[in-house]
Amino acid sequence: MSLNSSPNTFIPIAGGYPANGQYTQRLGVIADRTFACSTNNTTNKQTMSRTRHTATQTITKLALVYPNWYINAGAETGSGGIATIKCSLELSDGTIVPVKFGGLDRGIAQDLTNITTDMTTVNITKGDFFYVRTYWVGAAAGIWYPFAGGAAAANTSDVFAFGVTTTDLTGGGTITSGGSPGLVYGPLAIIGQTSNKSVMIVGDSKAAGLQEVTDYSLRQGPQARTFNAQVATANFAHSGDRGQDFANAANTNLIAVSQYFTHVCIAFGINDLNGGGLTAAQLLTQIKTIVAKFPNNSIIVCTLEPNTTSTDTWATVANQTPVASNAQRVIFNNTLRANGIPGVDHIADIADVVESSRDSGKWIANGTASFYTGDGLHPTSATSFLVARSLVVEPSLL
């Protein structure tokens, strides 16, 4: 069976998107690749970051939304004090465009809040890249996003410096990365007037792309790689996160940002069934709670990939053994496929792409060690590209 004809690869449920495929003009996300922080540091309170983004439409005006919080065990946690933020845009030709907060050079973000810049006039062509330069001075801590596996270090676009004192380079100049590679602080969302689709991804390390290497798009994770260049994507997935933690947390700032997205993609579950100790029925209840947090978005929920051990480093199917929670994973997936969660508009059946056969509990294999997974839990870059090619989340159907 070809991947593109797989009957359950992508299941749009009636009512999940406009009949004409168009969304109304609104204030929404207009550029790709933004993040939610998941780390704080009470020593290194000053950071200077440069993050690369791609315009998903021609942009004439934009604003940036910044967080003064980070995700800790699925819940928003403030940095501990106010933060002063200064930022600018660096266009692809090197031009620096200052961005203001209420007409001022700097904005003051209160603890555990979002802050939004003024609208800034620019001229960025659809598909063109640009950078956001951000200077952060925290009263209590620095916060940042660690790319899964430090994969951002493989590209020279994202640069991050931190310390007790750090130089403000929002006006230009070379930022010298310090400390660990793959760290950034930047906007949660880049917004402007749009009628285009956009997707906010919440989930765990698999969705974050833990074992992946970045490509030309700099996207990571099978969900993010699947969306084409016209669909702006924010990957808010983090290693170790569980659906039950996200469901039980208020996460008011993240939910507030969801107003700028047309879709929310939910990719939790495996950590709940494994270390989290939930049954499939309990996990389904938690996912229902998460779905209810986003009543104004179209909702995509992902089936769960296998989790196995292997005696030949996942070179073959025969030498894999599913973990004990596999029976619960199968129940969860089949309930989801049967439209068992109210409010879900699309089912992204990633499991059907990467499982040797439906409900086998084993990864596909091609004879090469660690080709599709290197640990029996996380997909590799090759797997994420396979998922993307399978149209497991068909952008035209969103």
Describe what you observe in this structure.
By secondary structure, the chain is an alpha+beta fold. It folds into two domains: 3-23 and 197-397, 3-Layer(aba) Sandwich (Rossmann fold); 37-189. The protein has helices at residues 205-208, 222-226, 243-248, 252-257, 270-273, 280-292, 326-337, 350-354, 381-389; strands spanning 10-12, 26-29, 39-41, 46-54, 59-67, 69-72, 75-78, 83-91, 96-99, 106-109, 114-116, 120-124, 129-138, 142-146, 159-163, 183-184, 189-194, 198-203, 232-235, 263-267, 298-302, 308-310, 320-322, 346-348. A six-stranded mixed beta sheet has the order 1-24-21-20-18-19. Strands 4, 8, 9, 10, 13 and 15 form a six-stranded antiparallel beta sheet that branches. Strands 2, 5, 11, 12 and 17 form a five-stranded antiparallel beta sheet that branches. Strand 8 (83-91) and strand 9 form a beta hairpin. Helix 6 (280-292) packs across helix 7. The longest helix is centred in the last third of the chain and has 13 residues, at 280-292. The radius of gyration is 20 Å and the shape is globular.
Q: Mean of the pLDDT scores? A: 89
State which percent range the strand residues make up: 25-35%
The CATH topology annotation of the largest domain reads as Rossmann fold
Low-confidence parts: 1-17, 149-154
| Number of discrete helical segments | 9
- The strand order across the widest sheet is 1-24-21-20-18-19
Radius of gyration: 20 Å
Number of domains: 2
Q: What class would the helix/strand composition place it in? A: alpha+beta
Query: Quick one: how many beta strands?
Result: 24
Q: Which range best describes the helical content: under 10%, 10-25%, 25-40%, 40-55%, 55-70% or over 70%? A: 10-25%
Main β-sheet description: 6 strands, mixed
